[in-house]
């Protein structure tokens, strides 16, 4: 049975030119409250949470329950999970970026875990919460990470080509450009960035690096400028996205997180995952439906595998309303899927 090929692009950063004006974080209002964003979301200058009411509804929070926010960031989602929790509730929040620590509220119900969520099971055990009632992951990078010039995530600034969310990790984007083979570069540019001429770009990088350092955003852009296709801002946004996904092994971490979900959720507990890239969304969809990463084509007539401990709460992914997309362009490519443990 032929399957329609999904586009690998759908990331919030590639949906718009990099230098397009960003929404002001302090303007506008959260749709369902009518209040200014800054009043509803602490640290809104750090990041505006996407699909906020949809996440809260999806998690169906029990006031006395234990929850995990795997991607704390500015704590926008977490602050609302906390509001729904009673005094006996508990919230464990993960973020591998040290900058996120400054946003952790002084609240005895909160435990901050400054590590990669790929180690979810281990750290939940360590903090005395091996089983939880709900889990959220809002994948990718925060606005803060894009807007911090020195982090090297954005094509808008001249900076070291770093792109590590976790500064303790060794490999930077510059290291990838310097050490990966032509074949490896081609594959990641094609799969994670859907760069139109990924093969030519990979060949050019390998050729140019023999004589030219490409360790800053500008040096890299200049070094490969002869092969840029179409709008340079869009082109480099796609290239940077591909490098960022590789630097942080975003697909590998997501796979490990998904594999941990059935074991860490209590019966009736829910996992809500927001993706911004169709490859990520596909991993979530297949795993929630089958409880494994086996190709879904093997079970074309079943909505889920019989021994899958998870059940999809919504058949289709939940997307941002037109109003939210207007207010926060980063929500345009967001897809939320929610699964429940049986
Ligand atoms: C899109 S932001 C989350 C924003 C948050 N929901 C909010 O409302 O402020 C993603 C955050 O997750 C973190 N992150 C991404 N992948 C991670 C991983 N594998 N392990 C731990 N943290 C991760 C990033 O450092 C970033 O701060």
TrEMBL record:
InterPro entries: RsmH, SAM-dep_MeTrfase_MraW_recog, SAM-dependent_MTases_sf. Its EC number is 2.1.1.199. Residues 1-21, 298-309 have a biased composition (Basic and acidic residues). SUPFAM superfamilies: Putative methyltransferase TM0872, insert domain, S-adenosyl-L-methionine-dependent methyltransferases. The keyword Methyltransferase applies. It is an enzyme of class 2 (transferase). It catalyses: cytidine(1402) in 16S rRNA + S-adenosyl-L-methionine = N(4)-methylcytidine(1402) in 16S rRNA + S-adenosyl-L-homocysteine + H(+). It is found in: Cytoplasm. Residues 1-30, 298-342 are annotated as: Disordered. The keyword Cytoplasm applies. S-adenosyl-L-methionine binds at residues 75-77, 95, 117, 138, 145. Keywords: Cytoplasm, Methyltransferase, rRNA processing, S-adenosyl-L-methionine, Transferase. Belongs to the methyltransferase superfamily. RsmH family. NCBIfam families: 16S rRNA (cytosine(1402)-N(4))-methyltransferase RsmH. Specifically methylates the N4 position of cytidine in position 1402 (C1402) of 16S rRNA. HAMAP family: 16SrRNA_methyltr_H. This is Ribosomal RNA small subunit methyltransferase H. It comes from Flaviaesturariibacter amylovorans.
């Amino acid at each position: 049975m032929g399957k329609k090929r999904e586009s690998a692009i759908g990331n919030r950063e590639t949906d718009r030119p990099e230098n397009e004006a960003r929404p002001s974080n302090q303007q506008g209002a959260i749709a369902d409250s009518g209040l200014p964003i800054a009043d509803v979301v602490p640290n809104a200058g750090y990041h505006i949470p996407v699909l906020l009411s949809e996440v809260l509804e999806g998690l169906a929070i029990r006031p006395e329950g234990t929850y995990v926010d795997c991607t704390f960031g500015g704590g926008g989602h977490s602050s609302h999970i906390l509001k729904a929790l009673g005094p006996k509730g508990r919230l464990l929040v993960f973020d591998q970026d040290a900058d996120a620590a400054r946003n952790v509220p002084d609240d005895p119900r909160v435990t901050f875990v400054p590590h990669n969520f790929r180690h979810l099971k281990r750290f939940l055990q360590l903090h005395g919460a091996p089983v939880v009632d709900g889990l959220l992951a809002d994948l990718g990078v925060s606005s803060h990470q894009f807007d911090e010039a020195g982090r090297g995530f954005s094509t808008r600034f001249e900076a070291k080509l770093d792109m590590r969310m976790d500064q303790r990790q060794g490999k930077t984007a510059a290291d990838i450009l310097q050490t990966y083979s032509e074949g490896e570069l081609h594959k990641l540019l094609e799969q994670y960035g859907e760069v139109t001429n990924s093969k030519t770009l990979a060949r050019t990088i390998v050729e140019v690096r023999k004589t030219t350092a490409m360790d800053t955003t500008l040096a890299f852009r200049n070094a490969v400028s002869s092969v840029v296709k179409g709008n340079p801002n869009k082109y480099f946004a796609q290239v940077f996205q591909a490098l960022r996904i590789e630097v942080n092994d975003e697909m590998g971490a997501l796979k490990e997180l998904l594999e941990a979900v059935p074991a860490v959720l209590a019966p009736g507990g829910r996992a809500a995952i927001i993706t911004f890239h169709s490859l990520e969304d596909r991993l979530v969809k297949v795993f929630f439906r089958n409880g494994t990463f086996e190709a879904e084509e093997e079970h074309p007539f079943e909505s889920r595998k019989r021994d899958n401990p998870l059940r999809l709460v919504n058949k289709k992914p939940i997307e941002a309303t037109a109003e939210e997309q207007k207010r926060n362009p980063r929500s345009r490519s967001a897809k939320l899927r929610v699964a429940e443990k049986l």
